[in-house]
Design goal:
- By secondary structure, the chain is of the alpha/beta class.
- Helix content is 30%, strand content 20%.
- The strands form five sheets. A nine-stranded mixed sheet has the order 7-6-5-4-3-1-2-8-9, with helices on both faces. It has a five-stranded parallel sheet with strand order 10-15-16-17-18. The protein has a three-stranded antiparallel sheet with strand order 19-21-20, covered by helices on one side.
- It starts with 6 loop residues before the first strand and ends in an 8-residue tail after the last strand.
- 41% of the residues are buried.
Length: 468
């Protein structure tokens, strides 16, 4: 009895040259597609330096006579990938924009039809968009050859008279999140597509951020390059950090079950020593449940090597007791816990307030003192330093920089010797995605002051040179 061959799909995602980390979102999507639809699917990690001609040549060999079906996910605002998608679409491929902010990027910036300088969206670049969980693709792919695809949850597609139809999203379903195929990520080279050996994976324990769960009325200052507005405030409701577009995209869905988390850990690749490769635990507040997770890992005889944590400074401090308990367990298991990133973002209270971080400089410094103290107490199983691979959040420049904030920041950096172990080699300039709360802040400034800021794809320029 012959088996009908599977059709083919590809997911393209943004990547950085020289890295070997996994891409959890796109790789989960590819796994869901392979396991639940009539399609096989691979993920291709594409850097800015990659030769797009080589990629197109490889995909022509992959699809052969089939109409290409190409998903794009986790694009990080890269305009070269937006144009790459448009090129494929113009040549007859079906292109799908998915992943974080897919729906708002497809639709475009708020009221862009009234304000021509605003980001017009990517509905011309992609055939469809999909907002929300990847498992919504199951129905879409099963019904793509008939009209059933129109009822796909989370789907956006063109209707009549340039109207975009947007179906409501469905909720995440845990059974789809238990397994990830980590051997399905490829890079392009002169020899074509070759598998990428992943050395750092990710395990999803929490979807979204608890800090983004509640809304509060905030007051943000005008940018410092408008001195005539000094002291005046712009009021707007915020969820989470003001620059965070993920807060709008996901909010806070909640935690996954321990069974699902352990299933994901089991599916991680093994290193040469037989242990699971290091993995980032995706949970903005991981410390309360970390001892339980380590105990389950021990009880189920899962051999792991390292857990990477990303979290807030205040939650790090509040979780000290549980972290100490976890470090004792990790030491007994021969496991390292690496704090790969705390989002300090700034060492000036004025800037922290405008970023709506919900912490002060003193909170950040208290976290640093604790990080250093734990290194003395648990040198073999605790890490946080930049030389150990950690990259802690430091946003600079920002729209609120002044000589005073610069002086405060440099004084704190020098007094506490932050370049020695905490600060990254380079700061990250503030990036304002059009659908973040700072996007609303910019648009309020534009309306009240009668000025316009330049758009760079889905990103809004906030610096003086970006004023049109």
């Amino acid at each position: 009895m012959s088996t009908k061959p599977k059709r083919k799909m590809v997911i393209i995602a943004s990547y950085f040259s020289g890295e070997s980390y996994g891409l959890l979102g796109p790789q989960i999507a590819a796994t869901i597609i392979k396991d639940n639809t009539p399609y096989e699917c691979m993920t291709i990690a594409v850097t800015k330096e990659d030769d797009k001609v080589l990629i197109k040549r490889a995909l022509a060999d992959y699809f052969l006579n089939e109409r290409p079906l190409i998903g794009f996910s986790t694009l990080s605002g890269r305009e070269d990938l937006f144009e790459f998608a448009l090129e494929f679409k113009s040549e007859g491929a079906v292109t799908i924009l998915a992943g974080p902010q897919a729906d708002v990027d497809y639709l475009g910036e708020k009221d862009w039809k009234k304000y021509p300088h605003r980001f017009k969206g990517l509905f011309n670049h992609f055939t469809y968009a999909l907002g929300g969980p990847a498992e919504q693709l199951v129905h879409f792919l099963e019904t793509l050859d008939d009209e059933g695809w129109r009822k796909t949850d989370g789907l956006l597609y063109p209707g009549e008279n340039d109207h975009i139809i947007q179906n409501p999203r469905s909720a995440w379903e845990e059974p789809y999140l238990k397994t990830v195929a980590w051997d399905n990520l490829y890079r392009i080279g002169e020899e074509g597509l070759t598998p990428l050996k992943i050395t750092t994976g990710q395990v999803l324990q929490q979807i979204g951020c608890p800090y983004a769960a509640g809304s509060r009325e905030a007051a943000l200052e005008y940018p410092s390059f408008l001195p005539e507005k000094a002291g005046q405030l712009i009021h707007l409701p915020l969820k989470g950090c003001s620059f965070c577009d993920v807060a709008i995209d996901k909010g806070f869905y909640g935690a996954l079950s321990m069974e699902t988390v352990l299933s994901q850990i089991r599916s991680l690749p093994e290193a040469e020593d037989g242990r699971k490769i290091p993995f980032e635990l995706i949970n903005e507040n991981p410390l309360p449940s970390l001892p339980h997770l380590l105990q389950e890992i021990k009880d189920q005889d899962i051999r792991i090597s390292q857990i990477n944590l990303i979290m807030r400074a205040d939650w790090f401090i509040k979780g000290e007791k549980r972290l100490r308990e976890a470090l004792k367990q990790a030491g007994a298991l021969g496991v390292r816990i690496l704090l790969t990133s705390i989002g300090f973002e700034s060492f000036d209270d004025k800037i922290l307030s405008n970023l709506n971080k919900g912490v002060t400089v003193e909170t950040n410094l208290e976290a640093i003192r604790l990080m250093r103290q734990l290194k003395e107490e648990f040198p073999d199983c605790w890490g946080y330093e930049s030389t150990e691979g950690a990259i802690h959040g430091f946003i600079h420049p920002t729209p609120w920089d002044t000589p005073e904030t610069e002086m405060n920041t440099q004084r704190t950096i020098g007094m506490y010797a932050l370049p020695n172990d905490v600060l990254p080699p380079h700061s990250t300039p503030l990036i304002i995605h059009h659908a973040s709360f700072l996007g609303d802040w910019i648009r309020k400034i534009e309306r009240s002051e009668g000025i316009q800021f330049k758009r760079y794809g889905s990103v809004i320029g906030w610096w003086p040179e970006a004023v049109l």
